[in-house]
Amino acid sequence: MTLKALCLTALTAASLSGCAAITSLSEASRPLEIYELRTPEIAQAPARRGAVELVVEEPIASGSLATERIMIRPGPLQAQYLPGVRWSDTAPVMLQTLLVRTLTQTGAFASVGRRPLGSHGDYALLGELTDFQAEAPADAETATVRLRVVFRLVREDDASVAATRSFEVTEPAASPEPEDVVAAFDRATQHLLSEITDWVVTRRGLG
To answer: I want to staple 121 with a disulfide (CB 3.0 to 4.6 A). Which of 25, 29, 53, 154 is the partner?
Structure first.
């Protein structure tokens, strides 16, 4: 290769590298769309507020779920994330926050708090979040949101388990577009929160 050709090759490579860097910088500076999930409409308990104090722990979750990114699984062994969008908080923290709000809205408890903010109650609600993703196999026309969590209701005075239950909700998205996937997450989450709240309120000594 002649010196002239070598120089041209180097200049071309440098130019392409510069363009790639500019493109990456532009994509990095593009603001992410941030999404929040809502609590369901909950019927309040009778006017007399319950005497039980409840503490909601942050559910434990794997590293792939304990993130602000919105997970989508093309297969059972694959975990990817929707580009350009994220949740307002990590999935476990969002679920904890939404549960505190929903359980408070029932009016069935003397108080509903969270840890690790120093709250202490009669019961603690401990959870393990195992699914919080959209599933989109290659042969599917759209994505389906799947939420799965196991909760234990634990007595604070002796750490004994009062009740345990597994919850699972699926909700199809109208399309694979991020907005429709997030809307399916919102519907699924409201359904999940309603089921968990009904279960907690009707446990022994809780209403």
So the answer is: 53
145 strand-pairing partners: 134, 171
Token look-up 């929160």 returns 193
> pLDDT per residue over 35-49, tens digit each?
999 999 987 666 567
Domain map of the chain by residue range? 31-201
Greatest C-alpha distance within the chain: 91
Q: How far apart are CA 173 and CA 177, in angstroms?
A: 9
3-class SS letters over 125-158: EEEEEEEEEEECCCCCCCCEEEEEEEEEEEECCC
Annotate 84-103 with b (16+ C-beta within 10 A) or e (fewer): ebbbebbbbbbbbbbbbebb
Phi, psi at residue 97, to the nearest 5°? -60, -45
Residue 148 in this model has a pLDDT that exceeds 80: yes
Q: How far apart are CA 103 and CA 193, in angstroms?
A: 9
